[in-house]
Every structure is written in C-alpha cells, then in structure tokens.
Design goal:
With 107 residues, the chain is mainly beta. The chain folds into 2 domains: 7-54, no CATH class; 59-104, no CATH class. Helix content is 13%, strand content 44%. The protein contains 1 helix and 8 strands. The protein has a 4-stranded antiparallel beta sheet with strand order 1-2-3-4, with no helix packed on it. The longest helix has 14 residues, at 38-51. The relative contact order is 0.12.
C-alpha cells in the first residue's frame, strides 16, 4: 500500500510528495515539479528534521567565524540564536560552494 502524501515546503512554496511519480509536485502550479528518488527524499527529510527545532527562534547575532575542522578551512557565517544555539553555515566537501550546516546546542 502506498504511503499517504504529505505537504512540504520547498523554497517557501507548498509541494506534495508524489511517490508514484518520484517527484515533489507544486500545489500552486501542478505543472511545476522537482524529480526525486528515495535517496533525495531521505536527504530532504533528514535535513528538514534537523532544522525544525529552530523554527520560532530569533537570530541574536551574526558573525563570520574561522573553522578548519572539516578539511575546508575558511570563514563561515555563524548565527547565535535566542536560545543559545549556534548555527554554522558550512561549505560543501570540496570547500568551493554551498553545503550543509551544523547546529550546536547550548549545554
């Protein structure tokens, strides 16, 4: 039995996951779709789950911080959030473009 469809937000717009077609389909314009396979869905769901706890928090300060822990030394944006959480924006594995993020929770 197919899994029930879910509404998700991509780039601020509502989409629905159409598993039969292996795509995210726009709710506002059904002709707009983003192809995805099972790995794409898993990556999307994992990283979205990491970001959800940040909803509703405010950015208290923003700065650039030097980091060399991941083999791509350089300056990265660092956001201090209202609950003390730090959000690092990281580059990709090669260090030449956008990548992921790291969330550091207060102890």
């Amino acid at each position: 039995m197919a899994q029930a469809s879910r509404h998700i937000i991509i780039n601020g717009l509502p989409y629905i996951l159409d598993e039969r077609q292996d795509e995210f389909r726009s709710l506002s314009d059904p002709s707009q779709h983003i192809p995805c396979d099972q790995l794409d869905r898993q990556v999307y769901e994992y990283w979205s789950e990491q970001l959800r706890p940040l909803s509703g928090l405010r950015i208290v300060s923003a700065d650039m911080a030097y980091d060399d822990r991941y083999g791509a030394p350089g300056w990265y944006p660092l956001f201090d959030l209202s609950d003390g959480t730090l959000l690092w924006l990281l580059s990709d594995e090669e260090g030449n473009g956008p990548g992921r993020f790291e969330i550091v929770r207060p102890e």
